[in-house]
Amino acid sequence: MKNIIILISGGGSNMAAIVETARRDDWAGRYGARVAAVLSNKAEAKGLVFARSKGITTDVLDHKGFATREAFDEALATRIDGVAQPGEATLVVLAGFMRILTPVFVSRYAGRLVNIHPSLLPAFPGLHTHQRAIDAGCKFAGATVHLVTAELDHGPILAQAVVPVLPGDTADALAARVLTQEHLIYPRGIADLLQKV
Ligand code: GAR
Questions:
Q1: Which of 18, 51, 146, 166 could connect to 38 by a Cys-Cys bridge, CB 3.0–4.6 Å?
Q2: For ligand 1, mutation pick of 6, 8, 9, 13 (most atoms within 8 Å of CB)
Q3: pTM
């Protein structure tokens, strides 16, 4: 089995879209893949409730309990690797996981670590993407699914979706429009990757 481990920090709507698509499109039968666990760095992350309701193993690893970024990432990798049986592939999916990962962690999962970012990368890496797009006068915004490399919000692009920025848009309105597209392209990008790992 290929194990998909999804890391979240909040609402987990992208995680839920991946879980629902995996069931609907029979990723187990098609790709030999399953969502094996959902991990969060925040105990109060709402997405954990959804994952548990679907019978998916969940785990919380609070970064505040670690003195360094390196120590947290090492513990995170230990949890992730503990899910797979020897010889099984692991795909690590960042879905609103609001942590910067160390180069050691990133290289450990090179080619198997994927992220979604709410902008048309390489434009607007980092935070507050929607407000920055509005402030810049962008006529289009969107989201990007990409492989994670050591540089934040960079890495080979797997999928993108474009939405219009409408007159009078607030950051929240634009974020909601982008999010509906995220729910389509993230499962699609992961399904493509599952055929390569
Ligand atoms: C999504 O919009 C995702 O693209 C963004 O956080 C949101 C999480 O929503 N990720 C980042 O900003 C990462 N830099 P969700 O928890 O409902 O999936």
A1: 51
A2: 13
A3: 0.97
